[in-house]
């Protein structure tokens, strides 16, 4: 990835380390409360949140941010819920829990607004498969990666380990993440997503182009169209002058106005000027 003064390159490969940055700091009482909540029937969601930040703008004194989040309901009395209870009650046991359709491999960061998924790529993944016919009732997120979580012991406390797995029904449409190059667990891979980033307009143009690139091009076409139309058409005010059959009478009034002004007969000049204005207001009399 890279950046210039005003623009960010078209895509970025984002790699997250599989280990959590800090140990999981939860008290024993809070952990017990979480386990009891999982054993109950209350609504619980697994949420994946992301935030992309653009370079700091010195003029605006701000750096634009784009956010998105996806949630998965952990339904009561389900196998997934039981697995969460087991992994929390036996921390460090090496158990792994899988959250299907939880993490997008491709993202679209617009020039403003929330992060979304790139529709053309999603359609290519879901409908251009040689050996798989996508069911009509399939989830919109069936191309999302499965997130695999485990809770490992470390010298500083419990640490969450995250790995992702591409859906098996879709092939040859994903870029495999590289393995980590540090520590002793080099069999782990980075958690990877590829973000397609729309170019951000310079601050000078941003307030005029808030509708995006499409709105900018539409405005440009409209302006150019009006300029071309102005070259080949005449306004109604000009038509009644340029297309008048005999302009001699109109020209005579203008000359008379000039002569009476030179003679300083201002009352007559006012009458002639009123007659001229009347003719302009009533083109039919011309």
UniProtKB/TrEMBL annotation:
<dbReference type="GO" id="GO:0050982">
    <property type="term" value="P:detection of mechanical stimulus"/>
</dbReference>
<keyword id="KW-1133">Transmembrane helix</keyword>
<dbReference type="Pfam" id="PF12166">
    <property type="entry name" value="Piezo_cap"/>
</dbReference>
<feature type="transmembrane region" description="Helical">
    <location>
        <begin position="208"/>
        <end position="228"/>
    </location>
</feature>
<dbReference type="GO" id="GO:0042391">
    <property type="term" value="P:regulation of membrane potential"/>
</dbReference>
<dbReference type="GO" id="GO:0005261">
    <property type="term" value="F:monoatomic cation channel activity"/>
</dbReference>
<keyword id="KW-0472">Membrane</keyword>
<feature type="domain" description="Piezo non-specific cation channel cap">
    <location>
        <begin position="11"/>
        <end position="286"/>
    </location>
</feature>
<keyword id="KW-0812">Transmembrane</keyword>
<dbReference type="GO" id="GO:0005886">
    <property type="term" value="C:plasma membrane"/>
</dbReference>
<protein>
    <recommendedName>
        <fullName>Piezo non-specific cation channel cap domain-containing protein</fullName>
    </recommendedName>
</protein>
<dbReference type="InterPro" id="IPR027272">
    <property type="entry name" value="Piezo"/>
</dbReference>
<dbReference type="GO" id="GO:0008381">
    <property type="term" value="F:mechanosensitive monoatomic ion channel activity"/>
</dbReference>
<dbReference type="InterPro" id="IPR031334">
    <property type="entry name" value="Piezo_cap_dom"/>
</dbReference>
<dbReference type="GO" id="GO:0071260">
    <property type="term" value="P:cellular response to mechanical stimulus"/>
</dbReference>
